[in-house]
Amino acid sequence: MSDEPLRPSLERWLPLQQQAECCEPHPLVRAQELSLRYGPTLVFEDVTLDVHEGCITALVGPSGCGKTSFLTCINRLTDLIPGARVSGNLRLDDVDLLDPQIDLIALRRRVGMVFQKPNPFPLSIRRNLCLPLKEHGMRSRIARAEATERALRDVGLWDEVKDRLESPALALSGGQQQRLCIARALVLEPEVLLMDEPCSALDPLASRVVEDLIVGLRGRLTVLIVTHNLAQARRIADWAALFWKQDDAARLIEHGAVQQIFEAPKQELTAAYVQGRSC
Q: What is this structure's pTM?
């Protein structure tokens, strides 16, 4: 990674209201007949799903139906799980994500991830952002400082923390910690941001701040978010996909524009789930 930004910073893009509303679907991440096993256990099977560039796609469904596991396939965190085996096809644009020779460091720079529970490094606020930049080869201290400020501004944290950048990140509130983790992902200027229930550990006010932040990424990044909050999915997403466990393995039941999924689902199981009826 050079000392120049990999791509224009989020701060320099057009404001959200001046951008197209995720108009023409263009698949950036494509899964075809994707399956995942942990040893003999089949986690999910034959998932075919397009994740469209610049859009927010919400993965919904009950706990234990493979949503988070699907995310971990995209940035190859499955490699860290003993016995994990992924089959099928999975691509990021023109890159085969299942290629055993893929550069995982470069991949995880292109595909950032934010976890359910805020997980700042036990370091200062500044070092939480400078460390990944340094690890990815940004040598200039000035360049790292500029990138850090941009990322903190992108998540609305700069004015809150600019006078205490050397303070421990763990001293921040839960909502601030989660925004710092999002900034830590954004500072590497990824193309895709994976989010695993990023609001579930936050209070309603902090959740709304994070939701607004996610919406502000539309048209800038491709966001894939796991959420159990159907109201949240309907508020923020362009596309939605319902995962469900059937016959001891999770499957993709239906995928479509979020309005269609919630107002005119094609599958009875989808209709029952979004309406809160017994499935």
A: 0.89
Evaluate whether 45 touches 35 at the Cβ level (below 8 Å): yes
- To 5 degrees, how large is the angle CA 64–CA 68–CA 72? 135
pLDDT band at 19 (very low <50, low <70, confident <90, very high): very low
Number of other CB atoms surrounding residue 104 within 10 Å: 12
CB atoms < 10 A from the CB of 234, how many? Answer: 17
Q: Does 100 have pLDDT greater than 60?
A: yes
Residues 137, 243: Cα–Cα separation, whole Å: 38
User: Residue 171's closest CA among 123, 210, 139?
Assistant: 123
Q: What is the pLDDT of residue 279?
A: 64
Task: Identify the burial level of 75 via C-beta atoms within 10 angstroms of its C-beta, where 0-12 means exposed, 13-18 middle and 19 or more buried.
Answer: buried
More confident residue, 279 or 27: 27
- Residue 251 bridge partners (DSSP): 244
Tokens, residue 262: 């919630």
